[in-house]
Amino acid sequence: MHRYELSFRIPDDAVVMKPKVHYTNLWSRLFARSLFDTQWVLPLHERNNLTRFLEWYERHAMTLRLDGVRVDRPIFIISLPRSGSSMLQDLLCAHPDMAYITNMMYFFPSCFCAAESLRKRLRINIKGERFLQDSVEVEGGSPSDPVGLWAAWLKQDPYSLEYADCRLTDFAPADIERIRTDIRRILWCFEGRATRFECKTPALLPHLQLLAELFPDGKFIHLVRDARMNANSMLKLHRLCNEQLDRIRSSHGLGPAEQAFVPYPRLPRLAEYIREYGADDIRTTAHLWDDAARFIADRRGGVPHFHEVRYEDIVSSPRAKLLELFEFCELPPPPPSHLPFWDKLAKVGAVHHTNAYSNFDIVESICQDTLKQYGYR
């Protein structure tokens, strides 16, 4: 069950219970348990015999017919982390016409068609709360946040803090074709049942213009959340990401990472803020929220199909806002009989965790003007 809320944070002194994990069958335990246990921002599993087999199988035993597959008006959610983008992506991807990068695909980027085929054929699935401890359950077939895949496509180091103002002319035709072909392969995995590609990862926020150049017919949804909640939640994200990384390294007999991973979009002044305040300081995340809003405002005029929505408005009026978004994306509303969507929509707004956020005065002093522009009191 998914739970979504306006804001939450587990107090630092709270006892966090290990979430229950459900496996559909023995194959799921054999193949997917380690993937679930090591879930993180980037897939960290080693290239093992299963990966080698899937790579062989995809090259020699599968026939990928991409002739009739085209990338038609792809949909991108652009936002900061912890803005409710997972909630929105989950709702959009419950639409019967939507295709997306599943978690199983993301775990095997070199052979994702074979991995997805294996997941479906053997009914491999695992369901449980993701490592961010936010009551959002993930499965092998649910949509992912493919930071690493986009880093590979755009040839960027996900550990670098530097801003890269990439434009289409910075890439060779072969690089562009690889992105388009891989997305067509993702669409192929849905066997013609879904024809519209959706993707979200906050790492793409600095690349709004590049995405608009890559996909002139693309639909871009800018999701905004109250800075006071968002800045606090990003700090929690930073802590949980690095705690999970340390747990994974410890399970492999390794010590803590030499350098913390920073799960924030590479906006122009990110490195400067981290040098001045640190990655775990509310001033850094508050400045990033303000910068992100201004960054998008400066560039939205060059994006032909752009729509902005506040997270709080989705939570308060989920049906109206989702129908508005479907209209923007040129998608018919899901029929009443399509329960996967309507069941998820009915759960929007349920509160599960306790809010323990603070430092609102600091956030307001940094983001005051932009908060007013977005109607946040």
List the helices and strands and how they pair.
Layout lengths: L21 E2 L2 H12 L11 H12 L14 E4 L6 H8 L5 E2 L3 H5 L4 H10 L4 E4 L7 E2 L8 H7 L19 H16 L7 E5 L7 H7 L4 E6 L2 H25 L18 H7 L5 H18 L6 E5 H6 L1 H11 L10 H8 L13 H14 L4
Parallel strand pairs: 2-6, 2-7, 3-6, 7-8
Antiparallel strand pairs: 1-4, 4-5
Helix pairs in contact: 2-5, 9-11, 9-15, 10-11, 11-15
Brief overview:
The chain is of the alpha/beta class. Helices cover 44% and strands 8% of the residues. It is globular and about 60 Å long.
Task: Explain what this protein looks like in three dimensions.
The protein has 377 residues and is an alpha/beta fold. It has a single domain, classed as Rossmann fold, CATH 3.40.50. The chain is built from 15 helices and eight strands. Strands 3-6-2-7-8 form a five-stranded parallel β-sheet, with helices on both faces. Strands 1-4-5 form a three-stranded antiparallel β-sheet. It starts with 21 loop residues before the first strand and ends with a helix. The relative contact order is 0.18.
